[in-house]
Amino acid sequence: MLPDSNYYYQLRTMIGDYKMVLDVFDRGRFSYMPHLVLESEFSGHDWLFEKTEGDNYKISAQVLGVNMWLDVIEGGIFEGLLIYAPAVSYSNRSWTIVSKIIDQKHGYALSTSVHGVSKYLDIHQGGDFNNMPFMVDEQKFVGTIWNFEKSQQIVVSQ
After folding, report:
1. Does 23 map to a domain?
2. Is residue 23 a contact partner of residue 33, using CB atoms and an 8 Å limit?
3. Does 157 map to a domain?
4. What is the pLDDT of residue 53?
5. Quick one: pLDDT at residue 68?
6. Fewer CB within 10 Å, N- or C-terminus of the chain?
7. What's the CA gap between 151 and 8, in Å, rounded?
8. What angle do CA 138, 141, 147 make, to 5 degrees?
9. Which domain of life does the protein's organism represent (predicted)?
């Protein structure tokens, strides 16, 4: 099921035998950067998928009470990692949701263009960026697939 722009969602995946949820660091050196946590450690950052054109979406979340947009860091030591950016520094990045079947499991991959090249969102396993999403070329995509679970939060029209 693709996300409906009238609802917020939790992004879920499996890492090994563990159900994981995409959350956001709200302090420390990785502030405003998403990372995977166990369901029991989820702090409640829900994601809004705003349909733009075609199969494209802008993805946002409330982080510390501020509406932030999902973006890709395009330089420095964090290049290729994701970050939530406020509207003033947001690149207006658009994301495509791609249906995937990997290891006989159906889900969705997230794709966007970085420096003009199509990339897929995958998850670091190990090291300093353990459980943090990053962008890879399709050939290096190991297959992190996502499922969208509606949260209790609905979009309130302004």
Report:
1. yes
2. no
3. no
4. 83
5. 86
6. C
7. 6
8. 110
9. Bacteria
CA angle 20, 100, 36 (to 5 degrees): 15
The SS3 assignment for 91 reads: coil
User: Cα–Cα distance between 126 and 104 in angstroms, integer?
Assistant: 25
- Full domain range(s) for residue 100: 7-151
Indicate which CATH number applies to the domain containing 44: 2.80.10.50
Q: Is the pLDDT of residue 157 over 70?
A: no
The amino acid that residue 112 corresponds to is T
Residue 42 tokens read as 């989820």
| Residue 62 falls inside a structural domain | yes
3-state helix, strand, coil in the chain (%, to 5): 5, 55, 40
Kindly state whether residue 158 falls inside one of the protein's structural domains.
no
Q: Which residues lie across from 77 on neighbouring strands?
A: none
